[in-house]
């Protein structure tokens, strides 16, 4: 996988407002927030998109979701939305897997 802006954040080559990190993942605030609280949870492992993950990534994917929920609660969110854009046609722009966590405003359904 080619290097992305997120691998530079992992390697501390560019700054980010990191709200959580452990040996498997990082969570940091989105530079272009779409809600009062908007952060991204990314694996340290460079997986380009969700559909590139495989059976061996099962625990890691579960961990990303657990961290998303835990950090959302720490950020004071009770209701929040998770979003994963998979592929350019689904508005993915950074090809390093990331879970968007958005909260602090109402969300409608279906999404746009
Ligand atoms: P997506 O469209 O799903 O690939 O979302 C990529 C998100 O990444 C987008 O909401 C903006 C955010 N983003 C892009 N570059 C940076 C950056 O350099 N720093 C931070 N914190 N967020 C970024």
TrEMBL record:
Signal sequence range: none
A Pfam family annotated for this UniProt entry: HIT
Q: Which InterPro entries match?
A: Histidine_triad_CS (IPR019808), Histidine_triad_HIT (IPR001310), HIT-like (IPR011146), HIT-like_sf (IPR036265)
Per its UniProt entry, which superkingdom is the organism in? Answer: Bacteria
Q: Where is this motif: Histidine triad motif?
A: 96-100
Residue ranges annotated for the HIT domain, each copy included? 5-112
This chain's protein is named Histidine triad nucleotide-binding protein
Per the UniProt record, the source organism is Alloalcanivorax gelatiniphagus
């Amino acid at each position: 996988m080619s290097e992305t802006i997120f691998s530079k954040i992992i390697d501390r080559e560019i700054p980010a407002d990191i709200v959580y990190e452990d040996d498997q993942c990082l969570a940091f605030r989105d530079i272009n927030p779409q809600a009062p609280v908007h952060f991204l949870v990314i694996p340290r492992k460079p997986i380009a998109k969700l559909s590139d993950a495989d059976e061996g990534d099962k625990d890691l994917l579960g961990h990303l979701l657990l961290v998303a929920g835990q950090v959302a609660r720490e950020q004071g969110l009770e209701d929040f939305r998770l979003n994963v854009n998979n592929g350019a046609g689904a508005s993915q722009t950074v090809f390093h897997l990331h879970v968007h966590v958005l909260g602090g405003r109402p969300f409608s359904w279906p999404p746009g």
